[in-house]
C-alpha cells in the first residue's frame, strides 16, 4: 500500500516504527564467536578525578569485544547500568549513549555521598537484539488466542487472533475509528454475535534459528562487564540545602528520574510526599474516582491501597479470575477505585469476558472527567510477544483519547505508569526486557507533550535492581507514593 492510500494513523505508526528500528543493528550473518562477550569487554572512566562531588556527572566508557577478543565495530547491545551503595540502600540508573561503533558512554548522576559501586551488565548482545527484533516483527505465533462462542446450551471454542487468515471464514471485530481489528474463525452455523469469552497463552513456539538461540545461553547473558577502576568516592562539596518543589503533573519524563537512598525514592528535581497513615490517605482520596486501566503491575496498586486504606472494600463484581475487573469502594468517604485490564493483547490462562472488553481509548471516551477524577494508565508487557505496530497504534490512540479528554475536562488528572524493567528469563524470546525498552522509548515520544504525570517504573525498577515483572510490595509502595504526590 502506497503512502497516498494510507490513513493518517497508519502513516504515524509507520513513522514511529521506522524511527525506532534505527536502534537495532542490521546483522544477517549471526556467529556466536563474533557476538559481544561481556567477559572480554571493558569499562573505563572518562576524565577520572581524585574526588567527586554530589551532583557531578560520572561518565563511564564501555568498549565491546567479541569472543575472539576482537573489538566490536557496531552498537546495539542491550545494557543495564546502575550505581549503588549497599550500606546506604542507595541506587540509581545510568543513561546509556550508543555511538554505534562498539563504544558506549554511560552517564551517572552522583546523587549521594559515600562509596559508590558502578555496575554495567550486558543483558543481550547486539546480535541477540537483532534476532529478537526480527522475530518479534515477523509473525504472530508466540501467542494463541482461543475464543468461546455460545450456541444454545453449547459452548464452542475456536482460534482467534490479530492476523487475518483468508483461508477461513472469519468473524471480524473491528474498531474502524482506531483501526483496531481482531478475528476469530467463525464456528459453523453460529452467529459472530455469540462470541462471549477470550483467553490468550504462550504457544512455546520459536522463530529463532539454532545459531540465534546460542546467543542466549544462560552463562553468556545478563553478565556484568569487568570493572577495573573499583569504587568511586563521592563527597558533599556544598552545604547549600536545595529545596525542590513538590512533583506535579506536567513535569518532563526524565532518565534517570531519581534515586533510592535508605530504601526511599527521591525524584530528580522535585519532592515526593509520603502518605502512610490512614487519616492522611483518607483525606487525600476523599471524594475521588480513580480509574486504573492496565495490566497486573497496575493491579498491584489497588491491593497496596487496600492494605493502607482499611475502609476500602475491594471486590470483583464480574468473576474470580485474576484478570477480572476489581472495584474498591468506601461509601463513607465517597471513594471509588477501579482496576480494569487493558484488553487484548492480554495473556490470561483463564477465560475473560470479551463483551466487557474495551481498549483504553474507548474507556477514556466514556469518562466525563472532573477535578476529582484520576485516570492511571499502563500498557506494555502483554504487547511484547506481538509485532510492535500493535503497541504503537494503541499508544497513539490513547494519546488521541487523552487529547479529547482534556478538551472536555482539562482538570482531570492523568498518570502514566511505564512498564517495569523485568522479564521471565525462560521466555526471553517473546518477553524480553529489550522489547520493553523499545516500548518505553516509543511511549516517551508519543506522550511527551501531554499534561500528564509520569511514574517512571522502568527507571525505578532498574535502580531497585528488580529483574522480575512483579516486584514486591515494598517497591510498589514507592510507585503509589508518586501517585499520591500527584493527586493529593
Can you name the CATH architecture of the largest domain? 3-Layer(aba) Sandwich
- The number of distinct β-strands equals 25
Enter the CATH topology name of the largest domain.
Rossmann fold
pLDDT average, as an integer?
94
Largest sheet: 7 strands, mixed
In short:
With 488 residues, the chain is an alpha+beta fold. It is built from 11 helices and 25 strands. 24% of the residues lie in helices and 30% in strands.
Provide tags for this entry.
488 residues, alpha+beta, Immunoglobulin-like, Rossmann fold, 7-stranded mixed beta sheet, 25 strands, 30% strand, globular
What is the topology?
Elements: H1 8-21, E1 36-45, E2 52-53, E3 57-66, E4 78-85, E5 90-93, E6 95-98, E7 103-109, E8 114-124, H2 126-136, E9 143-151, E10 154-161, E11 170-175, E12 180-185, E13 195-202, H3 210-213, E14 223-224, E15 232-235, E16 258-261, E17 264-267, H4 278-285, E18 289-294, H5 296-308, E19 313-315, E20 326-330, E21 335-341, E22 348-353, H6 360-365, E23 373-377, H7 388-408, E24 413-417, H8 428-431, H9 433-447, E25 453-455, H10 457-464, H11 473-487
Parallel strand pairs: 2-15, 18-21, 18-23, 23-24, 24-25
Antiparallel strand pairs: 1-3, 3-7, 4-5, 4-8, 6-7, 8-14, 8-15, 9-10, 9-13, 10-12, 11-12, 13-22, 16-17, 19-20, 20-21
Helix pairs in contact: 1-7, 5-11, 7-9
Describe this structure in words.
The chain is α+β, with helices and mostly antiparallel strands. The protein has three domains: 32-127 and 221-235, Immunoglobulins (Immunoglobulin-like); 143-202, no CATH class; 258-487, SGNH hydrolase (Rossmann fold). The protein has eleven helices and 25 strands. It has helices at residues 8-21, 126-136, 210-213, 278-285, 296-308, 360-365, 388-408, 428-431, 433-447, 457-464, 473-487, and strands spanning 36-45, 52-53, 57-66, 78-85, 90-93, 95-98, 103-109, 114-124, 143-151, 154-161, 170-175, 180-185, 195-202, 223-224, 232-235, 258-261, 264-267, 289-294, 313-315, 326-330, 335-341, 348-353, 373-377, 413-417, 453-455. The strands form five sheets. The chain has a seven-stranded mixed beta sheet. A hairpin with a 4-residue loop joins strand 11 (170-175) and strand 12 (180-185). The longest helix has 21 residues, at 388-408. The radius of gyration is 24 Å and the shape is globular. The termini are far apart. The model has no long low-confidence stretch (mean pLDDT 94).
Amino acid at each position: 500500500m502506497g503512502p497516498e492510500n494510507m490513513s493518517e494513523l497508519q502513516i504515524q505508526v509507520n513513522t514511529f516504527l521506522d524511527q525506532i528500528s534505527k536502534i537495532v543493528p542490521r546483522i544477517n550473518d549471526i556467529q556466536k564467536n563474533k557476538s559481544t562477550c561481556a567477559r572480554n569487554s571493558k569499562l573505563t572512566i572518562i576524565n577520572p578525578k581524585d574526588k567527586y562531588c554530589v551532583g557531578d556527572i560520572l561518565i563511564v566508557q564501555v568498549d565491546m569485544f567479541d569472543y575472539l577478543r576482537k573489538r566490536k565495530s557496531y552498537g546495539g547491545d542491550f545494557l543495564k547500568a546502575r550505581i549503588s551503595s549497599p550500606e546506604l540502600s542507595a541506587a540509581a540508573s545510568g543513561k546509556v549513549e550508543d555511538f554505534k561503533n562498539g563504544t558506549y558512554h554511560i552517564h551517572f548522576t552522583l546523587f549521594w555521598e559515600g562509596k559508590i559501586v558502578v555496575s554495567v551488565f550486558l543483558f543481550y548482545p547486539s546480535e541477540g537484539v537483532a534476532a529478537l527484533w526480527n522475530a518479534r516483527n515477523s509473525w504472530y505465533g508466540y501467542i494463541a488466542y482461543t475464543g468461546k462462542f455460545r450456541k444454545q446450551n453449547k459452548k464452542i471454542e475456536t482460534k482467534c487472533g490479530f492476523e487475518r487468515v483468508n483461508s477461513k471464514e472469519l468473524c471480524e471485530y473491528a474498531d474502524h475509528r482506531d483501526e483496531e481489528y481482531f478475528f476469530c474463525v467463525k464456528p459453523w452455523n453460529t452467529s459472530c454475535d455469540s462470541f462471549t469469552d477470550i483467553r490468550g497463552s504462550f504457544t512455546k513456539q520459536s522463530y529463532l534459528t539454532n545459531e540465534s538461540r546460542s546467543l542466549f545461553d544462560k552463562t553468556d547473558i545478563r553478565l556484568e562487564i569487568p570493572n577495573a577502576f573499583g569504587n568511586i568516592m563521592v563527597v558533599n562539596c556544598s552545604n547549600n540545602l536545595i529545596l525542590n518543589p513538590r512533583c506535579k503533573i506536567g513535569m518532563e519524563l526524565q532518565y534517570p528520574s531519581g534515586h533510592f537512598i535508605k530504601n526511599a525514592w527521591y525524584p530528580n528535581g522535585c519532592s515526593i510526599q509520603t502518605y502512610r497513615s490512614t487519616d492522611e490517605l483518607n483525606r487525600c482520596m476523599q471524594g475521588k474516582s480513580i480509574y486504573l486501566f492496565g495490566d497486573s503491575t497496575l493491579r498491584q496498586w489497588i491491593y497496596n491501597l487496600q492494605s493502607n486504606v482499611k475502609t476500602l472494600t475491594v471486590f470483583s463484581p464480574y468473576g474470580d479470575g485474576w484478570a477480572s475487573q476489581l472495584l474498591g469502594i468506601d461509601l463513607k468517604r465517597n471513594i471509588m477505585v477501579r482496576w480494569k485490564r487493558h484488553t487484548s493483547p492480554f495473556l490470561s490462562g483463564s477465560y475473560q469476558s470479551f463483551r466487557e472488553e474495551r481498549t483504553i481509548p474507548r474507556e477514556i471516551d466514556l469518562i466525563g472527567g472532573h477535578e476529582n477524577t484520576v485516570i492511571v494508565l499502563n500498557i506494555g508487557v502483554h504487547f511484547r510477544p506481538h509485532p510492535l505496530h500493535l503497541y504503537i497504534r494503541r499508544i497513539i490512540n490513547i494519546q488521541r483519547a487523552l487529547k479529547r479528554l482534556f478538551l472536555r475536562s482539562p482538570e482531570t488528572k492523568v498518570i502514566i505508569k511505564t512498564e517495569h524493567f523485568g522479564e521471565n528469563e525462560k521466555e526471553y524470546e517473546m518477553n524480553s526486557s529489550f522489547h520493553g525498552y523499545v516500548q518505553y522509548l516509543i511511549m516517551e515520544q508519543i506522550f511527551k507533550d501531554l499534561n500528564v504525570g509520569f511514574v517512571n517504573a522502568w527507571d525505578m525498577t532498574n535502580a531497585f535492581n528488580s529483574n522480575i515483572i512483579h516486584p514486591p510490595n515494598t517497591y510498589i509502595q514507592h510507585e503509589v507514593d508518586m501517585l499520591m504526590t500527584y493527586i493529593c
